Fold these 2 entries.
Entry 1:
Amino acid sequence: MSLSFEVQHRDPTGARHGLLATPHGLIETPAFMPVGTAATVKGLTQEALEALGAKIILANTYHLYLRPGHVLIRKLGGLHSFMSWRGAILTDSGGYQVYSLADLRKMTDDGVRFRSHLDGSEHLLTPEKAAEIQLALGSDIAMVLDECIETPAPRSIAEAALRRTSAWAQRARKYFLENAQQNGDRPQWQFGIVQGATFADLRRESARQLLALDFPGYAVGGLAVGEPHEVTCEMAGEVTALLPTDRPRYLMGVGRPEQLADYVALGVDMMDCVLPTRAARHACLYTSEGRVLIKNARYFEDQRPIDPNCCCSVCRRYTRAYLRHLFAAGEITAAILATHHNVHFYLDIMRQIREAIRFGHLQKFAAGVRAQYRSGPH
Ligand SMILES: [Zn+2]
């Protein structure tokens, strides 16, 4: 079975409810992808992810390339088989991770030369190499290598990164088209990544250059990295307005619970973010009534669930007092239960967003979520 995407409903805001078909199941969009950096979503087993209804997760090319290595994963039947995950997988290109290495990397037109954060060994990540690794991993959706830059960035730096990102996308596309059929029964889609920092005209130019390469889907990268939410939305909107309506759009690395509907209203179909899992490990819980910082002394003898309106297995069984105790005692179960709830919360928001789109009232839903979160942490 190959991949396909179809928009089924549209909301007056511009939001789309669609169906992404992959060899590893059907995914209703807009979809949130929990982040499984090293072939595991920290704190959750694959059984737990299935029970939560996660249909697609994200895995990191950089981490899996360094450990255990894409050659081993291919030998063991690909990433789905290796980690025993029946759902779909999107792999990033490693571009953002090598950018984050700062002193350990050097960008050239050929690619990024970097030192492993694990053992200091030297590697060269090129657009072709990033595509090769992801073909070996056998993810359902692969990303091209892009150049990430710091924001706010001077225009000249953003322009140079845009040029390089487009040139790399061309090389990645060529390599992918020449080598993809060798994967045989593991069809894969390769997405392009629009860059351009916070310059609207550069965003549009980047989108136009990538459109010429005819990717089956497009991502918007380099946003939600410190700029105001309004700017993130403005830049994402500049791009989605130019993208083909029949292909999926993926906004990388977003976002806060109260922001998800804003991105969806711009016509975004896919999102990923470490927030629900990372915040959970730091005792920050997302609820229908705002954030709960569970270590707070006020929960010492609180018999209520994390979120009285949540139907997840953690909220049905455990109290705030117990969760607070587990965090105070440094028990690993604290992170497991908190992660379970937070991922459920994100997946549930997306489910509600899809329902709101079907009924054409996403704007009202978004205003409701924002009002809950304005009240701040409880
Ligand atoms: Zn819950």
Entry 2:
Amino acid sequence: MHELAVTQSMLNLALKYAERASAQRITRINLVIGELSGIVDESVQFYFDFISKGTLAEGAQLAFEWLPARLRCRACGHEFALQDGNWACPVCQALGGEFIAGRELYMDSIEVE
Ligand SMILES: [Zn+2]
């Protein structure tokens, strides 16, 4: 799984921000994850607890906000959320479409003290 690499780069970024803000400690990291990103939040927390030991981020809480997948219909341009794995456009019933959201993974903000 790619969670370790993802978690490492997220930690590096959080530490950079914390240093810039002259923070003593990172208390919370707010993450946004698309439901298609393939990321398992428990794995991220697990790796995070491990690699953040001895850093400003040790003991920080990770908060995950999940973004639903969204598709844009190739036939009529309608945008809709992927529900129950149903790929059919609710307007014209065309199957498939282009993903416009759902694969993202980014750090929204960090809280420090
Ligand atoms: Zn359509």
